[in-house]
Amino acid sequence: MEMMKKRSSGMSKKIVENCCSSSLDMIMGSFYIPKEDDLRPDSQGEDSHFVCQEKKSFGLADGVGGWIKQGIDSGEYSRQLMNNSLIALNHQETRSGHVDPTRVLEEAYYMTNSPGSSTACIIALNDDDHCLHVANVGDSGFLVFRNRECIFQSPIQQHGFNHPCQLGRFSDAVDIAMEIVVPVQSGDIIVAGTDGLLDNMFPSEIEQIITKAQHQHTPEKLALTIADYALYNSLDRFSESPFSRAAYFAGKKHRGGKIDDITVVVAKII
Questions:
Q1: How is domain 27-32+44-269 classified at the CATH fold level?
Q2: Among residues 5, 36, 42, 193, which one has the fewest Cβ atoms lying within 10 Å of its Cβ?
Q3: C-alpha to C-alpha distance for 163 and 172, rounded to whole angstroms
Q4: Among 260, 243, 194, residue whose Cα is nearest residue 223
Q5: What is the pLDDT of residue 13?
């Protein structure tokens, strides 16, 4: 089902046979829960995202928290990167009528001058080939659900456990971005998030929420429900989580969830 390539690999994209002549669209909603910080009660958090219904696109980023040790607002880079992504998106010449997420991310990267670094994931629906086109860096990412079952989850890019690839002037360059192409169809649900979601929820848990919601929830309501569940899991100090499982395989000790900023974007393909 899925196809992907890393830009630096020189691999060519596979061509997807267009087996459906009808046009596709997607409706989107999002929800953000910044982690509590007693030392910075007015903090906007480290995550940022945008949703552009007109161009069937959205993006999210997670500022790397380690910069706070150097007195740098860890969320400033992610906010500027997403703002510049939206600017690049709106200025992009799209003769085909579709967005190129890799080009958007490249332009945003070169426009972003804030100190710090962040992960990034930009997703666009291309109606010509009925595929999601994605540019992804780090451990933010997305899942595709069909008939309430997860059929695809994006891979993460990391230098080591809890050390994701990240864009920044003193971090990774934009050519590390992985291009991903995933065929979709009407009825599919896309759930994207920063690691505050992906470190705290298994795909099966999201499947259960989607199953209970049926068709009654709007994308925004579904994003809120998923984010709340991820928050609950992040505060659980004892149950197994994707983060604790990854820690185990990396030879680290960690029980329960991981407290973090949580961004969830839900898109329904129609």
A1: Phosphatase 2c; domain 1 (3.60.40)
A2: 42
A3: 12
A4: 194
A5: 41
